[in-house]
Amino acid sequence: MQQDSTKIPFWRDIRFLKVFFQILFVIGIILLAGILYSNMINGLSRQGIKLDWTFLNSEAGFGISEGINYDPSDSYLKAFWVGVVNTIKVSIAGICCGTIIGFFFGIARLSSNWLIQKIAAVYVECFRNIPLLLQIFFWAALIRSLPKIENSIVISDNIVFNVQGIFFPSFAPGPGFTTWLWYLLGGVILAIIVVLGFAVFRHFGGDHELQQTDRPPFTSNIIFAAKWAAAPTFIIVAIAGWFLTSEPTFAVTRPVLQRFGYVGGMNLSPEFTSVLIGLSVYTSAFIAEVVRSGIQAVVKGQREAARAVGLKESQVLSLVVIPQAIPIIVPPLTSQFLNLIKNSSLSVAIGYPELFQVGETIINQTGQTIPIFGMIMMSYLIMSLTTSAFMNWYNRRITRYGLSR
Amino acid sequence: MSENENITNNPIIVCEDVHKWFDDFHVLKGITTSFKKGEKAVICGPSGSGKSTFIRTINRLEEHQRGTIIVDGIELSNDLRNINLIRQEVGMVFQQFNLFPHLSNIKNITLGPMRVRKLSKRRAEEEALALLERMGIEDQAYKYPAEISGGQQQRVAIARALAMEPKIMLFDEPTSALDPEMISEVLDVMRELAHSGMTMLVVTHEMGFAREVADRVMFFDEGVVVEEASPADFFDNPQHDRTKLFISQTLQH
């Protein structure tokens, strides 16, 4: 019998085995999930709870201390949404503050100044080695120890500190705001006309000596015109509109003391402030280490070359080192952002009404543990995946060209 | 053979008893020498002899701990202003090229002129293109360093240093990281630069280049200048045993 070299028995064929085991694995997973699900349904029905989502439309009946417009007569779904928005709010604010503080201390830790370097090291080592929950409690206690309303600390009539939190002046659209918006719209239209006119003139008019093929493409003329003609046009119209509008376009509201406390301006509640400080300080300690390792990963020769062309130390850092450190920093930085979003659920401990806290309240009132936990998990998953998708996109954009050896 | 007609008698670099330690390791043990304007000095020696460290002290990439270095009348001290002034007058080319990988070749060249010499973008780019043409690689201007060969990268690096219009050029083993067939294209532009009258300090193992271009060859060993002479004397009539050994070993292969 002749041996056919291309004929392999299927139990030795790598191509077959690869597919076979993957199929086996998927079947196993589906079976396991099915067992768990039917078990859960049985358990729930024994407790008399039916898995159904209609409860989400019933009246919530509980108050939420802060967040978007909400009333206890609104539905559970609306209440849940208030929690989602509060989570997003504290996460975005925390990511912004944490990143800024983290970059500052990460760079400071590499400073040649002994004192700055040591202060940064102490900061990082303290805040990343104390449990976050403890830190949030600490900030909450600190804010609760701020003076009572009648003894508020007021800085230059604008910023107020007291047990109700921190108050800032804020901008609100004034009576002339809509008039000004019309000017802005006019500016946009005028700018578009200018761009098109300018681009057409540059493309078809101008230098007739040029061959048709030598002309820059029409889109490059559009970009050129947008940069040099449209932006100035829009800005001029916007500024002119600002001065031509007789009524004020923006009104500044300041915190003012009334019977039950300060009203007006922007208020950061004690809960929000403690969570925000806790999250940003804790995460910034980790970000500082990420930034430090990123900067140290840029080879020494890059700094030397930058110094050799005569750049100052600050320029060496901002023009040569940091642009090369960013692609190294971004992936671990993304992890820190995701940690921050998930850590925001610790707010439940001090009563900041975010996703998890509102969810727990709904569970207590309805007993719908499984659906609400499912919704909470899905919400965190969506927020985290969105963040990491954005960061991955950003990372791909900046790593188009390879790093130096 | 050498370019004596370009040399003036004024020293542009004066070194007096320069010492340098890396922790306990005494790298430079009292270097006293001077270089005239337009002079081309080739510095050679075994690895660890301090030759690279020496030229790196001249633009303060390495700090010297004792002695004085005066470059074009400016003393290299702890005065930040002096360090920056000297770095603007001294260009440097590295063994590993050290181009900025996140910038295109032309931006690598215009960075210094725009940020330090405060040239306009248009002016800096004109000068950069002229330099790239002089290096024979004007068609590589808008590529990135990772997209061109090692020899081309080193020529961009030379253009980057020249864009600051330096009075002195330091070369730290400029061909050591290159494939053999790319060495000559870099040596060619260095030769052209030498003929233009630039003051050059070159650390290299290219003995052919030393013989042809150098006014003086300095031999470093264990942190001291063992021997310095004109290329003819240095290669054909070395005085010290250490030099003889080095030359026989370098020229063997």
List keywords for this structure.
heterodimer; A: 405 residues; MetI-like fold; two-stranded antiparallel ribbon; 11 helices; 7% strand; B: 253 residues; alpha/beta; six-stranded mixed beta sheet; four-stranded antiparallel beta sheet; 25% strand
Mean pLDDT of chain B: 91
Question: What is the assembly state of the chains in this entry?
Answer: heterodimer
Shape of chain B: globular
Task: Calculate Rg of chain A over CA atoms.
Answer: 30 Å
* Main beta-sheet strand count, sense and barrel state of chain A: 4 strands, antiparallel
- State the share of residues found in helices of chain A, binned by percent: 55-70%
Low-pLDDT stretches of chain B are none
Proportion of beta-strand residues of chain B: 15-25%
Helix content of chain B: 25-40%
Give, in spatial order, the strands making up the sheet with the most strands of chain A. 1-2-3-8
- Structural class of the secondary structure composition of chain B? alpha/beta
Cα(first) to Cα(last) distance of chain A is: 58 Å
CATH superfamily of the largest domain in chain A: MetI-like
Instruction: Please report the first level of CATH classification, the CATH class of the largest domain in chain A.
Output: Mainly Alpha
